[in-house]
Design goal:
InterPro entries: Beta-gal/glucu_dom_sf (IPR036156), Galactose-bd-like_sf (IPR008979), GH (IPR017853), Glyco_hydro_2 (IPR006101), Glyco_hydro_2_cat (IPR006103), Glyco_hydro_2_CS (IPR023230), Glyco_hydro_2_N (IPR006104), Ig-like_fold (IPR013783). The chain is an alpha/beta fold. About 20% of the residues lie in helices and about 30% in strands. The strands form 7 sheets. An 8-stranded parallel β-barrel has the order 23-24-25-26-27-28-29-30, surrounded by 5 helices. Strands 3-2-4-9-6-7 form a 6-stranded antiparallel beta sheet, with no helix packed on it.
């Protein structure tokens, strides 16, 4: 391991020592796990009295037995907005309340019992048996609490959760709340996706021993064909335990092991983690197994973590995986589906990644918030590269309170995803108002904070500002820009696209001497709307616009500084109501129910052509349909 890598590893390993671990819950010989997903009891407060539930102490009420509060069934995980039939629930602002019963086995007495939420959007207060358990105020990220002292063992327990979707000037993301003359509270925000809310990811109970593995940090390195797994394990509860740390390959064979809590595993002839289509065996994952053993030799705790062995490096012209330059072929996306909203939707996740592979993409950005851990797991397994984005979107009014909340969201994001091989870059924000001078010191501190937690990945801010107006670029490792010439700018005029797109991207590189990725471009398109000659909103226009951008991209690729293209968007998605939105944002190349528009077939041809040219990938047989064979040429042959 190089001296530089050792310094980075020591720095990032401290993250586990300063924050509680948030390891994904996995059952093992020492850990039990019970899901609390299912139908919960649900109540919403009156829009004119948002604190009704707190004043009336709904956390002390049995929702099943009360006639004082209107109770309905609510699925978890799911956003609550589209489950009902009334606009009051869809557009509700303020707290809503969830409750359910759960059973804790008597055999768990003496263990630590944890309640873990993978995400609540946005702010959450949790009570167990009427006692405060925990609070959390950032959506899309997990949190947990030790509830060992407040549960009933061998009996029934009650969990109550207040969820508040209110967005304010210092929340991540920001918003504004106004009170109308009617007394109703109205929420407004500048970002262009619907503010779905609720318990939108899994809730689990799990146990650990009193002495347990709290956190694991892994940084990998390579030297030729060999790999190095640098690891650090944080243990809570006792310092008299010993460890056995083992690395297993995909077939379950132990490759190497050690007996220290912080060390380096040498992997001879390692199977490296490669992105999809860059290698015949992409997304190779080992299993890092940690066991804690007491002085008598008895197993105390055991936890296994999937890891990939790979390196990320970057310079002024390129980003490299395992010393090989990468070119991102991908998407901006959203967690968004009919009825469930942003709720975890496993069939949809599988469908999405099947489409990503079908189209020949190798990457996407978690626009504009951290995605579910199940999504991130699948990306790791498939070799899909991820630009991992914080929930900061359209940031403005750069106050000290906002800065601290933004830092907190980044700390939680990096704590969650630091070990993922698929995460190749951190995105601090999407389209912040960096034309303001006060944004300069703000983003200097934000980028410094990210690099203090993880210096092994490049950092970006996804910008929509003109390069010369921006105050964040000097702190970044990669410039990510969103450009909409031919749509929002010069609408309908495709003749300007190539010149303007090249001008913008080239200027980012000239100003800051860093590689450039186009993270958004595209056009709204109504499924089945055709027009010849092409016209805005038609499928023909979307194809024509994309083609112009691709001309610009290929020109910049030849210039050597352009390292990726991500179309906006993978699929149509819901937004707040607006006269410019017909049921939502329609820039998807797939519909909201994941069926292809004409542009999907066109994009597929481009992405596979790039994969063949840059990665020597084998093009699928069904990429082109048979059209015609010249009989004259055949007869001559």
């Amino acid at each position: 391991m190089s001296k530089e890598m050792l310094i980075v590893f020591v720095a990032i390993s401290l993250l586990g020592g300063t924050e509680c671990g948030i390891l994904y819950p996995r059952a093992s010989e020492s850990r039990e796990l019970v899901t609390l997903d299912g139908l919960w009891s649900f109540a919403s407060t009156n829009d004119t009295n948002p604190f009704q539930g707190h004043v009336e102490k709904w956390y002390d009420i049995d929702f099943r037995a009360t006639d004082d509060v209107e109770i309905r069934a609510m699925p978890v995980p799911a956003s609550y907005n589209d489950v009902g039939t009334d606009s009051d629930l869809r557009d509700h602002v303020g707290p809503v309340w969830y409750q359910r019963k759960f059973y804790v086995p008597a055999s768990w007495d003496g263990l630590k019992v944890w309640i873990r939420f993978s995400s609540v959007c946005r702010a959450a207060e949790v009570w167990v048996n009427g006692e405060p358990a925990t609070t959390h105020d950032i959506g899309h990220l997990p949190f947990q609490a030790d509830i060992s002292s407040i549960v009933v063992y061998g009996g029934e327990n009650t969990i109550t959760v207040a969820v508040d979707n209110t967005l304010l000037e210092a929340t991540i993301p920001q918003g504004i709340v106004t009170t109308l003359e009617s007394g109703r509270v109205k929420q407004t925000y500048t970002f262009d996706f619907f503010n779905y809310a609720g318990i939108d990811r899994p809730v689990v109970l799990y146990t650990t021993p009193q002495t347990y593995i709290d956190d694991v940090t892994v940084i990998t390195d390579i030297d030729g064909t060999n790999g190095f797994v640098n690891y650090s394990v944080v243990v809570e509860g006792s310092d008299t335990v010993t460890a056995r740390v083992s690395l297993f390959d995909k077939t379950g064979n132990e490759v190497v092991s050690d007996t220290v809590l912080q060390g380096t595993l040498f992997v001879q002839s390692a199977n490296l983690w490669w992105p999809y289509l860059m290698d015949p065996n992409p997304g190779y994952l080992y299993s890092l197994q940690i066991q804690l053993i007491d002085p008598s030799g008895t197993l105390i705790d055991k936890y296994s973590l999937p890891i990939g062995i790979r390196t990320i490096t970057w310079d002024s012209k390129s980003v490299k995986i395992n010393d090989k330059p990468i070119y991102l072929r991908g998407f901006g996306r959203h967690e968004d589906s009919d009825i469930k909203g942003k709720g975890l939707d496993l069939p949809l996740i599988i469908r999405d990644h099947n489409l990503i592979k079908w189209i020949g993409a190798n990457s996407y950005r978690t626009s504009h918030y951290p995605y579910a851990e199940e999504i991130m797991d699948l990306a790791d397994e498939l070799g899909i590269m991820i630009i991992d984005e914080s929930p900061s979107v359209n940031t403005e009014n750069f106050t000290s309170e906002l800065l601290e909340n933004h830092k907190k969201s980044l700390t939680e994001l990096i704590q969650r995803d630091k070990n993922r091989p698929g995460v190749i870059m951190w995105s601090a924000s999407n389209e912040p108002q960096t034309e303001y001078e006060e944004s300069e010191d703000y983003y200097r501190q934000i980028v410094d904070h990210i690099k203090s937690l993880d210096a092994t990945r490049p950092v970006t801010v996804v910008n929509a500002q003109a390069p010369d107006d921006d105050h964040s670029g000097q702190f970044l490792d990669v410039a990510c820009c969103n450009v909409y010439h031919g749509w929002y700018e010069e609408p309908g005029d495709l003749d300007v696209v190539v010149t303007e797109v090249v001008k913008v991207a080239r200027r980012w590189n000239e100003l800051h001497d860093i590689p450039v990725i186009m993270t958004e471009y595209g056009a709204d398109t109504l499924e089945g709307f055709h027009y010849l000659p092409s016209y805005m909103w038609s499928e023909e226009f979307q194809n024509n616009l994309l083609s112009k951008y691709w001309q610009a991209f290929d020109q910049m690729r030849q210039e050597g500084f352009f390292v990726g293209e991500m179309i906006w968007n993978f699929a149509d998605f819901r937004t707040d109501q607006s006269f410019i939105r017909l049921g939502g944002n329609k820039k998807g190349i797939f519909t909201r129910n994941r069926q292809p528009k004409a542009s999907a077939h066109l994009l597929r041809k481009r992405y596979w052509a790039l994969a063949q040219d840059l990665d020597n990938a084998e093009v699928p047989d069904d990429l082109e349909d048979y059209i015609y064979e010249s009989t004259t040429l055949r007869d001559e042959l």
